[in-house]
Each structure stands twice: as structure tokens, then as C-alpha cells.
Amino acid sequence: MKDQQADSDGPNGREIKLGVLNDFVGMYLRAAYEAAFTDFADRLGEDRLRPGYFTILTLIVNNPGISQTEIGRTARRDKSSVAKALRWMEDNGLVTRLRPNHDRRTHLSEATEEGYALQRRMEARGREHLAALNATIGSDRREAFIETLREIVERLPEAGSSD
Amino acid sequence: MKDQQADSDGPNGREIKLGVLNDFVGMYLRAAYEAAFTDFADRLGEDRLRPGYFTILTLIVNNPGISQTEIGRTARRDKSSVAKALRWMEDNGLVTRLRPNHDRRTHLSEATEEGYALQRRMEARGREHLAALNATIGSDRREAFIETLREIVERLPEAGSSD
DNA sequence: TATTGTTATACTCTATAACTATA
DNA sequence: TATAGTTATAGAGTATAACAATA
């Protein structure tokens, strides 16, 4: 039905044919992700961490004593990326890391008072962002929408990465 | 309603609490985008352009004589990013650029035979990717899903970028 | 040997700013 | 002045690989 070769015509009037790009769900996914990302960043203003760092700090606040391996597994980031983020956060007084005696390989992270405070401020802004996003999506569509996103993440790799 | 603090427990058995991250639609969007992106890349194997370059080449194939400004506007990329891509594609024999007499500022791009051939091969792989993605989404949900993504892109910036 | 984490390095993708050349 | 495009540079954001310490 929606196969009207949805062209993009600029202000100059020229119609740009999108061809197969028209069907690329990935392009819509990226555009939506970028829009959501930008909305959150705009709401944070200057008082913020990068989104990836916010994710990590939030995991630490919610799970005091979490290890870097656990953070990486949960946030789906390589341990080296986590290490870099943690070092920055420690240098900036947001987290402290402890090496327990029972296993001195691991580094357990906890948020400092400053870390907790920043996370709370960012979470508050995050909730405003979510309210705007949810208003756009609509409560009637929200669950089905997220469920579809989840299924893409879970089921697509099984089909695709068979080489 | 869905506030059961959907935790993530790793193989070690420890439950990681996601807290507010649980509600972050942006995380699901990014994960889904990355999954789609990876699936496409896996299918392309070595015979490929980067996804952004494929977008540009496809625009050129579908719109011979398109200008760089038009490409940038359609692909939502800065002219400098487009210029870099075009130079690489020209150096690698995929496109040629012409400067018309009526306006010698503009560069109009056309695909070479090699460019057309590569685009066709990539488009074929892209269609396989889309088939897998559409199978995951399901034809009954597809239109509503894409419509939601579109609305996020179109409506969210209006609410968020008011500073 | 396996695991945790660190570091150096590099890659992808993209934008900003200063620029040239045209119009 | 405004527009099209180029170039140098920078900076997220992330991963790979080699490594040290510990188990």
C-alpha cells in the first residue's frame, strides 16, 4: 500500500527518488534513535554525562558494588570501553572503585555523593524526556512498539550472523 | 503497569537492576538499529560500501546528476561528510562528477558502470536483509511500527529543542 | 589456564570552521 | 552577499590486541 516511492523533494522542487532506501527500516530506526538521543541531550543542557556514561553511572547507582565485567555485559560494551569510562568517572569524582580481598582481580564500583547527585539530576531530566517520547508514541502503541524493537534485537542476529 | 524492574541477570546469577534504564526507549532504539545495521553488514561481507556510502551511491543511481547539496539534504548529512564520501567514491571509480556550464559551483554526480554494478549487488543483499527484518517485524505490525518511528523523528524535535 | 581489568592504538562516522570558486 | 563544494581538524564512541595481575 505505502509503496508510492515516497520521494523527498527539497525546497528547490526537485524530487529525489529514494529507491530501495525507501524500504530500509534501519534508516528509520537510526533517525528515530538520533531524534530521541538529541531530545535527551537537549534537556540535559550542560549538566550532563554522555549518554553511554549515564548508562554506566545508573547501573552503578542501582547496583552498588557492580563489577566492570557486569557493567559491560549489561550495557553491551567491551570491557575496554567500560574501563575508559570508569577511569574518567573516578577522575571526576563520580565513582570510587574497591578491590575486595576475596578476589583482587575485580574492581567494584560505587557512586560518590556527587555521583549520586548527578545521576539523580540526569534521571529527572530523563523522565521528562521519556514523558515527551511516550506522548509521541502514545500509550496505546507503546508496548507493542517496544516489543517489536526487542524482537529485532533478539531474533535478527540469529538469522544474519551465520558466516 | 510494566514496572516489574525487568532485571538483567547474568550467568553468574547476580541480578542487575536497570532502574530507569528499563524505561529508556532510546536504548531499545539504539539496540534495534545496531542489530539491523549488523545484519546488513554481515550479509554484505567484503563486497561492500559502508552503510552511509551505500545510501549516497543509491541516491546517485536513482537520481543521476544529483548535486552534493541535494544528497546532503536527503541523507541528512553535512556537506563536508558528503564531499568526503564523494571524493572517495570518485577515487575508487564508482562515480564521476560533472560541473555544468549553467552553474559552475555545483558538482553533479553520476555512477560509473562499476558504481551501478556495486549498487545492484548491495541492493540485492539489502533486500535479503529487509526480508529477514520484515519477517521479524511481521507484515501485520510493519506499517504501524514504521509510522511510529516516523512520528518520533517528526514530532520529538518540536517538543525538545526549545532552548 | 582462565578471568579481570588496563592501556595503546585505531577505526567509523560525523560535524565545525575556514577556505575557494562561483553566482 | 549567498551558495556549492573542499579541506583540515577534531571528537564522539567504540573495539582489538597485547598486557599485568590474580585466581
Automatic annotation (TrEMBL), chains A, B:
Sorted UniProt keywords:
DNA-binding, Transcription, Transcription regulation
Q: Where is the HTH marR-type domain?
A: 21-158
SUPFAM superfamilies listed in its UniProt record: Winged helix' DNA-binding domain
Does the entry feature the keyword Acyltransferase, yes or no? Answer: no
Report whether Signal shows up as a keyword of the record.
no
List the Gene3D superfamilies hit by this protein, alphabetically: Winged helix-like DNA-binding domain superfamily/Winged helix DNA-binding domain
- GO MF annotations, alphabetized: DNA binding; DNA-binding transcription factor activity
- Report the superkingdom from the record: Bacteria
One Pfam family named in its UniProt record? MarR
Full protein name: HTH marR-type domain-containing protein
Q: Which organism is it from?
A: Sulfitobacter alexandrii
